[in-house]
Design goal:
Shape: elongated
Structural class: alpha+beta
Largest sheet: 10 strands, mixed
Distance between the termini: 105 Å
Number of strands: 15
Radius of gyration: 31 Å
Helix content: 55-70%
Number of helices: 29
Amino acid sequence: MELTLEQIIQKVEQLFDEKRYQEIITLLNDALLIQYAHATLYVWRARAYKEIGEPDLSFNDAQKSIEIDPLLPIGYGVRGTVWAEKKDYDRAIADYTDAIRIDPNYVKAYNNRGNAWSEEKEYDKAIADYTDAIRIDPNYASTRYNRGVVWSLKEEYDKAIVDYTDAIRIDPNFAIAYNNRGLAWSEKKEYSKALSDYTDAIRIDPNSIIIYFNRGLTWAEMKEYDKAIEDYTNAIRIDPNYANAYGSRGLVWAQKKEYDKAIVDYTDAIRIDPNYINAYGNRGNAWAEKKEYNMALADYNHFITLSDNPDNYYRQVTLDKIEQLRKKIENAWYDDLDGIINEIKDLLLFDSPCLTHYTSLSGARAIILDNKPFRLSEGSFLNDTSEGRELFNYLSFETTKRTADETMAELFVERPFIGSFVAESKHNDLTLWRMYGKEAQAEAKGCALTIYRTSFIDSLKKKIRSTDKEAEVQSQSEEQFTFYNVAYLSKNRFIVPGKSDPDENKLNILMSELKDKAIELNDDQKISVVKLLNEIAYLFKSSEYQYENEVRLVVQGVGFTKKIKKEGNAPKVYIELVDIIPALNKITLGPKVERADEWAAAFNYHIKDQLINRQKKVEIVISHLPFK
């Protein structure tokens, strides 16, 4: 007996619910569709074609549906979905808009148009559409999830977490919602909550590569390297051709200083994806750590070949590494010096959570109220002209050369860019207010800004990633943005406040070795090694400054645009880093700041507006030390 139209539609709906798409296509053959000439039947076959991956056939049936009945909204909805799959988002948005015009309560059209807006990076429009979809159907889990994704793209992680949580409430088996909520928790550094969500997601979907991978990333952030390796290994077990898992596991092996295993993983990543640019850079780093310099050079050169953007930060850093490697290959003495200097840097690493920067009140105004990026001056332009000289004096090292006409000349050498800080405990200190917390040379009228160290470094890395998505060699950036304790020379011995006696003893042994090596250098060798010594020159001062507990950020400047301040008696070279507000922990106004309450209020409300979603507020302190 021949089925009626209603019976056919009912049968097709049942088959679609059971995901029996091929049976729908067989049932809705050309003869039957011509016989009934009904728009809804064409839409159902269009949907079935879409599900089996036949977008062109799906498009044709959706088009036919619209021709038969221009007022059937689902025809536009299906055609819009095909346009979206073809990445023609403008046409997709036009079709979804037509569908909504016909049926203002068409939830999926709002949801899908939101997806298209998101792909176009029109995030506010996407959120508006998702919000309309949720208004119409509050229990549409996918829309809650999609809006959460866009909140995450806007870095509004608290709002994203709310939406992911609602999606999970509606659908407790929504594995990818757990995964994405884990990503949001991870961005907020709430790693235990992130791990809990990833674990729930794996329980629901134990064969998801990306969930194991993301949990591995979180373990790595927590320095739980063995657990990270286990998760990356699980991702590889599920998909042996997942290059990113090999690349990330290689980074963890490198963190554990197991460079041979790192090289194996990077090599597998490159085998799977010969254009995996980061794997070449990171494998080059591993070869360099093993002192296999020619192998490192080959990988760095391949990295440069794949990176065709001359302004890419990591490309410029890699070019500098190539130059240094060539010096090491040609000169064993240079390699020895570099090794000693790296050991010294490791001993002087500063790892406390917070540190403080003294600045003028006008400087604080620019950094906070005007959101100007934090600047570092090149070493030549620091206020104290003796800066960077203590090390060279200790080494009896100079680069002045006598010329043919018996005059003395000193070659100019580029210096690193220096950020001057002190330990957090010194954020309100009479001596430091006198020396550094000035405004127009007036003592104690400045400001002390205390920042979270890791937040500041993370912001720097994020800034670089946002401009250099093409290539991100993680281990290169670690050494570029590191804070160091300052060591103070007292009676030919270096003292490092806060460091253990064994570390201090080891430092002095290394400094003695460095001095012995430096004495052996001839004039030409001294010229070539000055840049290397400048990496640590600003980490040493006389014992008369020991009270300050100074901390230094030393950035070589490679990859950063050098800017020149031309005002004043002499120009000044500097680089700009990042907005400091997201990393702020505390602001301390000097004891002689006039109308300090007004400054505090201005700082408070501006920061609150900037950090509206941050739970921990920035503390503002007005010093009342008895400054005379």
